[in-house]
Each structure stands twice: as C-alpha cells, then as structure tokens.
Amino acid sequence: MDFEPGNPPPCPRLRVVFAGMDGRFSTFPLQALARRHEVVGVVHSKPRRVRRGWLVDWARAGAGRGNLGRFAEFLGCPFFSAGRSAGPGLEAFLREARADLLCLSNFSFLLPPDLLEIPRLGAINLHLSLLPRHRGPNPWLWMFHDQDRIGGVSVHVVEEGEDSGPILGTVEHEVPEGISAGDLADEVLPRAASLLVEVVDALACGEATPQPQASAEGLRRARFVPPGEALIDWQTWPAERVSHFLRGASLWHEPFPPIPGFVRVYGPALCGKPEAPPGTLRQTGRTGWIACRDGRVPFRLRAVPRELWRLGLPLALGAGLWLLA
After folding, report:
1. Cβ atoms within 10 Å, residue 319
2. 9, exposed or middle or buried, with CB in 10 Å at 0-12, 13-18, 19+?
3. What is the pLDDT along the chain (325 residues), one digit of tens a residue?
4. Are 41 and 80 contacting, i.e. CB atoms less than 8 angstroms apart?
5. How would DSSP label each residue in 67-115?
6. Are 10 and 36 in contact (CB under 8 A)?
7. Given the DSSP bridges, would you call strands 101-105 and 15-20 parallel, antiparallel or unpaired?
8. Which are the contacts of 208, defined by CB distance < 8 A and separation ≥ 6?
9. Is 227 helix (H, G, I), strand (E, B) or coil?
10. 15-205 domain in CATH 3.40.50.170?
11. What are phi and psi of 63, to 5 degrees?
C-alpha cells in the first residue's frame, strides 16, 4: 500500500517508544511522530566503531553526540542508550514504558524477537530504500554506488530477520544525477517522516494492511563498508559515475585517506584526456582532482570548525605548558 503525505485521519494517540541514532535520519522522524502521538521513551543505539587513524578519530570524536538525548529531555520522556546488543536494560526500559508501539529509524542493530513482542502492537521500522532492494545498514551508500535513479522509503513490520518484515507503506523519490546525500535528505526526510506518521495513524485506527515482501534473492545487501575498502572500479567507471558516487556517498565512504579537520567536497565530472592513471589523487592547497579513465573529478577541502578546534586544543595546551616550563 502506498501513502502520500496528507492530512492524517482521526485516530487514537498511541504510546510510542522511538529508537534510532543521533543525526537527522532519526531526529526528523521523531519530531514528526511526537506531534501526532505520545512519545513515552527514546532509545539511542550507539553507532558501529570505525577506526580511521588516531588523529582523525580524535578530531571527529563526539560529532552529533547527544541529539536524541536532548530530544528526550525536551519531550519529557525517559531515555536509554544501548550498545551493540540489547541487554536486560533495554527489556526493562520497554516494559516500564508500557508502549503500544516501538518505532525504529536508522537503528544500528537487530533486536531479538522477545523484545519486539513487548509493545502491544509490536515494532515497525523506517528504512530508506524500496524494500526488498538494499536491505541492510547502508542503503543510500549502495543506492549511489548502483546508480539507482529511483529510490524510496519503506515502513515495515520488524521481524527477526534484517529488514524482512511485511511492508506497511512506501514512498518513491528520484535520485538526480550528482546530488549530495545532504541535499537528497532535505527532499526525502519530510516525506519519510510523513509516511511513518501515516502508518502509525493507520495502526492506531486498525486500518493497516501489511503486504509480504518480495524475495530478496539476487539483490545486493546494503552491507557496512569498512574504511579503505575499494568500491570504485577505476578502470571501467566513467568520470560521471565516479562523481555521482563520491558526491552522494561521502557521508559513509572515503576512498582516499581522510584529512583531519577537513572534508572533501566533490564537483561535477570534467571529461577529457586523463592527466594521470585512473584513481590518482592530485591536490594543491585546498583544491584538487581525481583522475578517471575519461576525465577527472574536481574537489575542494571544506574546513570543519569543530574538528579544527579539537585538533588545536592539544597544541594550545602543549604550548601553554611549554611557556610555563
């Protein structure tokens, strides 16, 4: 069943526990849900630890941390932070909340079946793909990698498997050539949040009709990609495809060593005679380019003030101690 944003039908307000990670892929749906239903608990799932080198890890530590906690405080509801597994603490939290429904969006691990049965209406998940395509933790990275021109959002029943439960609603969207993940999120997240609210409304009214998913056989799983894994085929990919992938997937994947305090912002492909072997990076100051088989992809370095501040703090402390010595 497809939903389009619109005026929600009259229905009882449900008691909802919301679960996700810090960042707007979770907080945007949470805000929309809180305007229609009673959020009685917020669960934060810690992201997977990714090591990119001690200096980069130090610079980026804590970015965005605490968003869900601050929303829980604003809403006046209990808050629980879970590690990479549920544990008895999460079970106790869900039982104390006495929720009608558990809503997940960008949650970082699978929940065991016994926890899913605690809320009266079970659990649902907002997933950023048209399931069963791109099941898994990184749907947008693989959407950009596979050059999908039509993407979508699915709300489904949470079962024991990964993103495999019956579908409760979907919304399609275009993936324009060269769009960044941030710009795409600006367009998609309002529609995704509306879809989630309309599904919750339908559940509250007893009007939801789950539809079984099609088979995922032969489809790529949207798996996690560790730093340094090669995803670009430099010998066959044209510059336009490299540019599209890098501009869209840079939130989750960096094909070249990161620079502490800066991020690379990629531009449209420049076609022409290659000036270096494909996959070669050239940089002068805060600009540079990457050679492709039929051209190059330019980039510029954008400063991240928070990271620069964290990098400068130890230097400032060291200089202060040296002056005092």
Report:
1. 11
2. exposed
3. 444 445 555 678 999 999 999 889 999 999 999 999 999 999 998 766 656 554 555 445 555 557 899 999 999 999 998 876 667 889 999 999 999 999 999 998 899 999 999 999 999 999 999 999 999 999 999 999 999 999 999 999 999 999 999 999 999 999 999 999 999 999 999 999 999 999 999 999 999 999 999 999 999 999 999 888 999 999 999 999 999 999 999 888 889 988 888 889 999 999 888 889 999 999 998 999 999 999 999 999 998 777 666 666 665 555 555 555 5
4. yes
5. HHHHHHHHHT--EEEE-SS-HHHHHHHHHHHT-SEEEEES--SPPPHHH
6. no
7. parallel
8. 168, 199, 202
9. coil
10. yes
11. -60, 125
Cβ count near 91 (within 10 Å): 14
| Six token digits for residue 171 | 């919304």
Write a three-state SS string for 106-174: CCCCCCCHHHHCCCCCCEEEEECCCCCCCCCCCHHHHHHHCCCCEEEEEEEECCCCCCCCCEEEEEEEE
- Containing H/E element for 111? none
**Residue length of the chain:** 325
Give the tokens for residue 300.
């510029």
Question: Domain-by-domain residue ranges, the chain?
Answer: 15-205, 226-325
Distance between CA atoms of residues 185 and 228, nearest Å: 25
